[in-house]
Design brief:
There is one protein chain. The protein has 13 helices and 32 strands. By secondary structure, the chain is an alpha+beta fold. The strands form six sheets. Strands 11-10-16-7-8-15-12-13 form an eight-stranded antiparallel sheet, with helices on one face. A six-stranded mixed sheet has the order 2-3-1-4-5-6, with helices on both faces. Strands 22, 23, 24, 25, 26 and 27 form a six-stranded antiparallel sheet that branches. A hairpin with a 4-residue loop joins strand 10 and strand 11. Helix 9 packs antiparallel against helix 10 and helix 11 packs antiparallel against helix 13. It is globular. The chain starts with a strand and ends with a helix. About 1% of the residues have low confidence.
Length: 599
């Protein structure tokens, strides 16, 4: 009965207690016994437990009896960090309602506002929830007022709970049953299901997570993926309770999984539509907007041997995380590797750690950079994902950088410090509004390159941990940018090239040249380390040559004998410099790249 089904997700800022509330709901509905219970039950990636954050959205079905009826509550737990916004948007498309969770002490944060607007765009029924009311310094009344000021919710509608102690969870389940509308799909219509996630099992192949919009899917049925154009037989289907539990059919409105012995990773596309195989499949669903990759970096196996292993690991990861992309690239310095695109810096860090933990590959990562646009002299617009692709300065008509709108929510005492920080990063203030007596939201337009490196950490530092940041892409703007090249012995080192503002080029060039001079081992000839913009050298350091005293055996005689030996040595060094290669160790690269990221 689809009128007894409720599909909802929990959305909130990072660390406001989504995963803990999911635990209490599982416990309250009797889905998990107290013996099976453990903290953050739905965070099953090892990395999620290590870092205490949710990275992947997880679905779970809970059966709850109330008033003689059994309700099926399908919960999708979502991440809170700005980098995983794409995971949240996929979850919202599968639900009819959303619990908007706010910390009773920290109040409305930047991600809370962004997630609330996303839920409104999907026309979801929003239930405002104030969590952590058991804290001694909780201020639920003030937080309810903040939510009214910034999101327009009624303070009387706020459900007050403590996810830690379980207080108020009963009232919350009642609110979900009463306020979240049941799904509208017809179980007897032609099958139409949305693929909202997938993962790869070494024994079962690709496991596809679906929300059934219309119709019914049964075991043994022939289905087809409309976008991929492939047909498969359903070998197993079921629900998450919270582990996989097989069943015979899934009807309209239900959330579950399909196993179809799909061994080819390219056959499953997140956002695809599943329908019946044959002449009259259902219309394809709109799917999801393609995620915009903001940050690019090169990933190379550290010993140069595991290239094929790295490719297989990246393919496996891309099946259940379509928000990152990769393509092969070669570097003179680092060998064969991949150029990868990510949604943000945390996303990049998580992918790198998952590769190292799950595939056991030791990686070297180049300095991250954002996507730029260049208009050349012929009027063509080119997207630049890596500094090596930037054409010579003579062929550049206009250099554009991505601009993001940053919303920073801070206590009023720290407004000055945050404004100074944003202005140092070439930010332009757009607005400033007060959410209550103690908190304000400041909005700045800042170049993305200035945001991705360390703006979030710096805001946390200068606001003693109380400031929160959210950002969204605004567009591209022309700026005075240039490609800064590092040359060793007259040859450009492609892995160390960066795109930066012309005003910062001198400082950054000098810093990298100095660092390289300290890291490169001395050779038999002197080595010039230079930073250059186009053909103009802006900084230089020299690694001195190792000297051998060739006149040591001349213990007497005419001075011309010594001059002759010194001249011979000089010519030999000159010839060596012309034809010699400079070996730059992996350690030197790592030192400079890590320095670049902090720079």
């Amino acid at each position: 009965m689809s009128e007894n089904i409720r599909n909802f997700c929990i959305i909130a800022h990072i660390d406001h207690g989504k995963s803990t509330l999911a635990d209490r709901l599982l416990e309250h509905t009797g889905t998990v016994t107290r013996r099976e219970m453990k903290d953050q039950l739905l965070d099953d990636l090892e990395l999620e437990r290590q870092r205490g954050i949710t990275i992947k959205a997880r679905a779970v079905a809970m059966n709850f009896k109330r008033g003689g009826k059994t309700y099926e509550l399908n919960l999708i737990d979502t991440p809170g960090h700005v980098d995983f916004q794409y995971e949240v948007s996929r979850s919202l498309a599968c639900c009819e309602g959303a619990l908007l969770l706010v910390d009773a002490f920290q109040g409305v944060e930047a991600q809370t506002v962004a997630n609330a607007y996303a839920a409104m765009e999907h026309e979801l029924q929003i239930i405002p929830v104030i969590n952590k009311i058991d804290l001694t310094h909780a201020r639920p009344d003030e937080v309810a007022e903040e939510m009214m000021n910034s999101l327009g919710t009624d303070p009387d509608d706020c459900v007050r709970v403590s996810a830690k102690t379980g207080e108020g969870v009963d009232a919350l389940v009642d609110a979900i049953i009463e306020h979240v509308p049941p799904p509208t799909g017809d179980p007897d219509a032609v099958l139409q299901a949305m693929v909202f996630d997938s993962n790869y099992d070494d024994y079962r192949g690709a496991i596809t997570y679906v929300r059934i919009m219309q119709g019914t899917v049964t075991k043994g049925q022939k289905i087809q993926f409309l976008r991929a154009g492939t047909q498969h037989e359903v070998v197993e289907l079921g629900r998450f309770v919270p582990q996989r539990e097989a069943c015979d059919s899934l009807k309209a409105g239900q959330v579950g999984y399909l196993i179809c012995n799909i061994k080819s990773l390219g056959d499953v596309h997140i956002g695809d539509t599943v329908s019946i195989a044959g002449k009259a499949p259902a219309d394809p669903l709109p799917g999801y907007a393609r995620p915009k990759r903001m940050v690019y970096c090169g990933l190379f196996p550290s010993d140069g041997q595991d290239f094929s292993e790295l490719r297989d690991a990246l393919e496996r990861l891309s099946v259940n995380d379509p928000s990152f992309e990769f393509e092969p690239e070669t570097s003179d310095a680092l060998g064969f590797g991949f150029r990868c695109g990510f949604l943000g810096l945390l996303h990049m860090e998580i992918i790198q750690q998952r590769l190292e933990n799950e595939a056991d590959i030791d990686l070297v990562q180049t300095a991250p950079n954002v996507t730029y646009e260049i208009v050349n002299k012929r009027g063509e617009t080119i997207s630049i994902h890596k500094p090596q692709d930037v054409p010579d300065p003579g062929d550049v008509e206009e250099f554009r950088q991505p601009i993001v709108r940053c919303s920073v929510i801070v206590p009023t005492d720290f407004i000055g410090a945050v404004m100074k920080l944003c202005q140092e990063r070439r930010g332009i203030q757009q607005s400033q509004e007060y959410l209550g007596a103690q908190r304000a939201m400041i909005t700045y337009d800042i170049p993305l390159a200035e945001v991705v490196y360390d703006l979030h950490d710096k805001i946390k530092s200068c606001t003693r941990g109380y400031g929160t940041l959210d950002y969204e892409m605004v567009g591209y703007e022309a700026a005075d940018l240039c490609r800064l090249d590092i040359m060793v012995n007259g040859k450009r080192v492609d892995a160390l090239s960066v795109v930066c503002n012309r005003a910062d080029a001198d400082r950054r060039g000098r810093a990298v040249a100095k660092k390289l001079k300290a890291e490169i081992e001395r050779h038999m000839f002197e080595v010039a380390v230079q930073a250059a913009i186009g053909s103009r050298v802006i900084a230089r350091e020299t690694v001195p040559a190792m000297r051998k005293n060739v006149t040591a055996k001349c213990y007497g005689g005419d001075i011309t004998r010594k001059r002759k030996l010194l001249q011979k040595q000089k010519e030999g060094k000159k010839r060596m410099k012309a034809i010699g290669n400079v070996e730059i160790s992996q350690k030197a690269f790592m030192a400079v790249l890590s320095d670049n990221e902090q720079g």
